[in-house]
Amino acid sequence: MQALVDDLLTLSRLEMISGPPVKSLVPVPDILFQIAFDADVLSGEKCHDIQIDADPAIWLLGEETDLRSVFSNLIFNAVRHTPPGTRINIVWGNSPNGAELVVQDRGPGIAASHLPRLTERFYRVDAGRSRDSGGSGLGLAIVKQVLDRYGATLKIESKVKQGTVFSICFPSSMMSITHEKPLSKAS
């Protein structure tokens, strides 16, 4: 219940904010390694193979809390909805249109008819799924709300029985190239 309340408060806060995000330098690779570590803990006995490839030089100008929420929602969803022992790939880097995050799983996939509605509040692909296994139904709505503020795009590709790929492209105006050393996966 607390997670549902937290998600509702987050979504409400995001809806009340107008204008672009505050532009602080955000060390995305560090955040992704921290989230991957948390995702490994969340995976527990399911022993997912979580692989991360993050370009240490690509950072974003934005709000760390919002970006962490976006990244963790996508990565934790992959852990929740992917069968035990399967691989989850997380890739962060430069693309022709800006900075890109790709989260790819080899889970059950999502039928094409559901894809346009995934970012709606409380929408669930499996209506029988409980909050214990499926989250609050607000995670992707939060992702969409944050990405709209950033002018970023979310692309979802999925094939039933083959897996799902979530890709986010942040505009190049939000990117920052840095030479600072990121945290390692062991941190």
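[next item in queue]
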Amino acid sequence: MSIRNSATMALLLPFLAIGASAADLAELTAECDACHGANGVSQWPDMPTIAGIDEFVHSEALFIYRDAARPCAESQYRLDDTTRPSTNMCDLSRDLSDEQIEALASHYAALDFVPAAQEFDSDLAAAGAAVHDTGCAICHSDGGANPADESSILAGQWMGYLRATFEHYKAGERHQPPRMQKAIDALSDDDVEALLHFYASQQ
């Protein structure tokens, strides 16, 4: 067997082992990309980029969505066929198998995260950097840019999506570990706004 063929088999074996074929994965990622953008890079403020997100973080989110244990906002398909009715993550993940979820998470984790090009207020961003360093950096290192933290990527993520996420946390609509709950409870509305601009500024 040639080196090239050996490398190809090494890439395919994980999918063969878990029963998720290349065709199956292609169909699943096409469905994800229809809302999250080509290769998981979002073009819309209310839709997060999922490329580059840590594999554990991504799979855990999909498992939670499948259990309808976090808010599932309605969203239109953004690419290809925009005539289809709106949908949400709970409906889309309901029939995913464990193997399919793991394959999707692995696929997107291997892609590069692309920071969103968006407007931000420089003064608020500077204030947000201080808030982040004081209350967030212990779990979200490198300004929230390090996927190895297993706490997702905040730096360069869309501000609209992060705003909705903060609102869910503040309202107790989304499960969070005690440390995260304590940090969220300590943030004022001004702190949250500053953080949003800080994360948006990292482009």
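[queue empty]
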